[in-house]
Amino acid sequence: MILVPGVLWRRGQVGRALGAGVATGVFFGAFVFVEAGSWLGPAVVFVVLSVFYGIRVARRMDRLWPAAEDMNAADRAAVVRATRRGEAVGDPRLAPAVAEYAGALRRAAEEDRLRRWVILLVTVLALALAVYDTLSGTTGETVASWLLVALLLADLLWWPRRRDRLLALADRAEKASLHRAHETSGTRDED
């Protein structure tokens, strides 16, 4: 959910599943194409990941932020945009939604932290495979293996800092939005 770009929140559940699934299927299908050099493997990877990963991401998004389903697309996108930028949402009535989305990001980050050891294990295995492919594999296998190692290392080294920055922005947006909503409601009460 943390990696899902804000533009996907403009879509409904099926649109979010298609957006996340197709992007993932194309990305990893390209890896398989570089390694295999044929179209059958990438086609299978594309179809399988597009369907299964897309459904998984959409379900996780709905589970972590169930209130999003009751919002229209423009409001969902405004909440996500403001939260990811660390800004108060423009419409004070959306302040509670910013708090809910910020909470969903925190829950997603916590769930992901519990799985970090899996990424470390996969990185070690991918590194061993990359070395093996370098010594005995084809050029495509070697390139694909080292690209995977680079992605996994980025996930281990770069992503935690980016995730922490995103969570700090979400906290700031939550406070600013709730403060603005409180000020707006206080102004109305005085009138």
Rounded radius of gyration (Å): 20 Å
Stretches where pLDDT is under 50 for at least 5 consecutive residues are: none
> What is the domain total for the residues?
1
Give me the number of helical elements: 7
Describe the structure.
- Keywords: Membrane, Transmembrane, Transmembrane helix.
- This is Integral membrane protein.
- It comes from Streptomyces albidocamelliae.
- There is one protein chain.
- This protein is 81% helix and 0% strand.
- With 191 residues, it is mostly helical.
- It starts with 12 loop residues before the first helix and ends with a helix.
- It is built from seven helices and no strands.
- It has one domain.
Can you describe this structure in just a few lines?
This protein is mainly α.
Write the layout of secondary structure elements.
Layout lengths: L12 H24 L3 H25 L8 H13 L9 H20 L1 H21 L2 H19 L1 H32 L1
Helix pairs in contact: 1-2, 1-6, 3-4, 3-7, 4-7, 5-6
Write a concise keyword list for the protein shown above.
191 residues, mainly alpha, 7 helices
